[in-house]
């Protein structure tokens, strides 16, 4: 009985706060999405419009573009590059050659710099570097690769690669360092045995290192998917969803509709679709990862 | 750290070719990782951020300018909100994590799973209803509103991280103390707290950093200029057609330096914390 009281006291405040800040908004978002609530008429409230917002959403051509940008560019491309590059850096840092050159430690330290840089500052850094007057253009011009400076964040041909560059620069260190620490748990004897059996470096990587990394790669990949799909700040600060709405993604669309176009009801409908997509990924995550973590820890 | 300097198997001596290749790749990687950040640091001490046309020479002008134009106010706002958030969030998370790691109760698994789920839920979806509610109860442009918000959104990760630490402390320790007549609170204060201090510090630091660099909630809930936090203040120097690069860079450095100082000691724990399940 005393334990029960103690338990309530310990868990109560956190759970109450989570209910208020997750539980209530999730339900209220559903309600708002069936209304035409406007940011300018919050006091008046919105009137019930049934499925109108959803109908409009699925009939608008723009929504397809937003979904495409979110899934293909913001998520798939950035996660794929991040994971592959992270793996490559981890292999490099773990290589006997780099250790021989005594560069492994300084490289590890270098990884901390982009990692510790706040996303907001990472965007600023790359907006400066990729500015028409910036270092990247200066270098390209010096080597005669371009005649005119490129406005990377304003040109439709370069804006997505530019945004993905910021994301990868900022987030590849976590992947690389985490994979590196997994690599260092692989028993050295396995490589020695493989070497004796005449396995090539590639075969050793493919059949020893990679299987060891798989569980960690899976978690990192999935977390990156969540984190990218939900991300607002990179696109918003790098391009403001522009040029025009060329780089608009779900998160910026939710914000734009509610806080720029004042259409809170419509925005909430988009939010709900977004939450549902994440829900599907969430179930995959729970099945593959969280369930096991839970059994391990509790 | 020291073990990795050694070459574990001398008979896998790298060939000269692989040494050169590794050196080149390492150089390229280092350049790409470090150069962008260094450019900003140096630019912050140059007139106009280092635009060639505006000449060279080192100056503190950019820093003086941002603090004259009220940047200090954003620093204070961020400090107040983030310190309060860190205290409240860490204390609540320690309590919840202790309950999860020490007790068995009916809803334990579903509750813990929903907390894990909170880590991956898109915050942007919660903005509209929260904004409507905040506007009604007048919590926008308000310290308390931001502190409550950040506390709620840092609890899931903190609880998850802390449970990971707490399960490494044997339950028998608590039980022995209780047999000797200690209360649960005494157990937490006298046994758990001292052992777990490094874990608590790491969690608290992480919470502070999340809060320090958070942009979305601040953007939605803080519209009055005198209530804005650092990340919002940083973007005030982006004008509609001109950007004051010198000011932007100086403000970026002011925002980033505390992050570096706090982040370096805990970075190892973050990598292992995030992927603890997979590394087992």
Q: What is the chain-wise order of helices and strands of chain A?
A: HHHHHHHHHHHHH
State mean pLDDT of chain A (0 to 100 scale).
90
The CATH superfamily title of chain A: MetI-like
Largest interface: A-B, 108 and 109 residues
Biggest sheet record of chain B: none
End-to-end Cα distance of chain A, whole Å, is: 22 Å
CATH class of chain A: Mainly Alpha
Work out the helix count of chain A: 13
Assign a percent range to the helix content of chain B.
over 70%
CATH-defined fold name of chain A:
MetI-like fold
The CATH topology assignment of the largest domain in chain B is: MetI-like fold
**Which structural class fits the helix and strand makeup of chain B?**
mainly alpha
Query: How large is the count of helical segments of chain B?
Result: 12
Low-confidence stretches of chain B: 1-11, 274-280
What would you call the quaternary organization?
heterodimer
Low-confidence segments of chain A:
none
Shape, per Cα inertia axes of chain A: globular
Overview of the molecule:
- Chain A is mostly helical and 298 residues long.
- Chain A has a single domain, classed as MetI-like fold (Orthogonal Bundle), CATH 1.10.3720.10.
- Chain A is 76% helix and 0% strand.
- By secondary structure, chain B is an all-alpha fold.
- Chain B has two domains: 13-62, no CATH class; 70-279, Orthogonal Bundle (MetI-like fold), CATH 1.10.3720.10.
- Chain B is built from twelve helices and no strands.
- Chain B is globular and about 70 Å long.
- Residues 1-11 and 274-280 of chain B have low confidence and may be disordered.
- Chains A and B meet through helix 1, helix 4, helix 5, helix 6 and helix 8 of A and helix 1, helix 3, helix 4, helix 5 and helix 6 of B.
Layout of helices and strands, plus pairs?
The complex is a heterodimer of chains A (298) and B (280).
Chain A: H1 2-32, H2 52-59, H3 61-94, H4 96-100, H5 104-116, H6 119-129, H7 135-142, H8 159-183, H9 188-196, H10 201-229, H11 233-239, H12 250-260, H13 264-297
Helix pairs in contact in A: 1-13, 3-8, 3-10, 5-8, 6-8, 6-11, 8-10, 8-11, 10-13, 12-13
Chain B: H1 16-43, H2 61-68, H3 71-102, H4 108-118, H5 124-137, H6 143-166, H7 171-179, H8 184-212, H9 216-221, H10 230-234, H11 245-274, H12 276-279
Helix pairs in contact in B: 2-11, 3-6, 3-8, 4-6, 6-8, 7-8, 8-11
């Amino acid at each position: 009985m005393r334990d029960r009281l103690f338990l309530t006291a310990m868990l109560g405040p956190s759970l109450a706060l989570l209910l208020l800040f997750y539980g209530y908004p999730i339900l209220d978002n559903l309600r708002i999405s069936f209304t035409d609530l406007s940011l300018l008429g919050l006091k008046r409230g919105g009137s019930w419009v049934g499925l109108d917002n959803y109908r409009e959403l699925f009939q608008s051509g723009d929504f397809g573009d937003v979904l495409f940008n979110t899934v293909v560019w913001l998520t798939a491309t950035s996660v794929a590059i991040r994971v592959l590059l992270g793996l490559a850096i981890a292999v490099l840092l773990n290589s006997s050659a780099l250790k021989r050159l005594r560069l492994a430690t300084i490289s590890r330290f270098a990884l901390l710099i982009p990692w510790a840089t706040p996303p907001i500052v990472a965007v600023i850094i790359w907006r400066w570097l990729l500015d028409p007057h910036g270092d990247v253009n200066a270098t390209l011009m010096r080597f005669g690769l371009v005649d005119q400076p490129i406005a990377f964040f304003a040109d439709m041909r370069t804006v997505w690669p530019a945004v993905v560059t910021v994301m990868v620069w900022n987030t590849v260190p976590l992947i690389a360092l985490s994979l590196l620490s997994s690599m260092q748990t692989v028993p050295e004897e396995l490589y020695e045995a493989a070497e004796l059996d005449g396995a090539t470096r590639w075969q050793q990587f493919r059949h020893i290192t990679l299987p060891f990394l798989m569980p960690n790669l899976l978690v990192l990949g999935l977390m990156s998917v969540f984190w990218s799909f939900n991300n607002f700040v990179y696109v918003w600060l790098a391009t403001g969803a522009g040029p025009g709405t060329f780089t608009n993604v779900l998160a910026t669309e939710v914000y734009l509709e509610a806080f720029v176009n004042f259409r809170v009801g419509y925005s909430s409908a988009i939010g709900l679709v977004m939450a549902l997509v994440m829900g599907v990924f969430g179930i995959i995550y729970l099945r593959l990862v969280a369930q096991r973590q839970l059994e391990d820890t509790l | 750290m020291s073990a990795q300097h050694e070459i574990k198997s001398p008979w896998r001596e790298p060939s000269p070719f692989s040494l050169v290749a590794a050196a080149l790749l390492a150089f390229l990687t280092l350049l790409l990782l470090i150069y962008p950040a260094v450019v900003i640091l140096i630019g912050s001490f140059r007139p106009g951020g280092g635009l060639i046309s505006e000449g060279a020479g080192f100056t503190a002008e950019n820093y003086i300018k941002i603090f004259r134009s009220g940047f200090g106010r954003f620093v204070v706002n961020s400090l107040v909100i983030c310190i309060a958030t860190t205290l409240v969030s860490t204390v609540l998370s320690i309590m919840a994590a202790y309950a999860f790691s020490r007790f068995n109760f009916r809803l334990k698994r579903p509750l813990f799973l929903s907390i894990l789920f909170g880590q991956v839920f898109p915050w942007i979806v919660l903005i509209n209803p929260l904004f409507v509610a905040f506007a009604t109860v007048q919590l926008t442009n308000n310290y308390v509103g931001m502190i409550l918000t950040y506390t709620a959104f840092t609890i899931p990760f903190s609880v998850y991280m802390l449970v990971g630490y707490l399960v490494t402390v044997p339950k028998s320790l608590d039980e022995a103390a209780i047999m000797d007549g200690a209360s649960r609170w005494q157990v937490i204060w006298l046994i758990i707290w001292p052992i777990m201090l490094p874990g608590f510090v790491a969690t608290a630091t992480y919470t502070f950093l999340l809060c320090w660099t958070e942009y979305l909630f601040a953007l939605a809930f803080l519209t009055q200029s005198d209530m804005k936090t650092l990340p919002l203040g940083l973007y005030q120097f982006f004008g509609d057609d001109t950007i004051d690069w010198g000011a932007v860079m100086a403000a970026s450095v002011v925002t980033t330096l505390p992050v570096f100082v706090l982040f370096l000691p805990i970075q190892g724990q973050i990598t292992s914390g995030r992927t603890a399940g997979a590394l087992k």
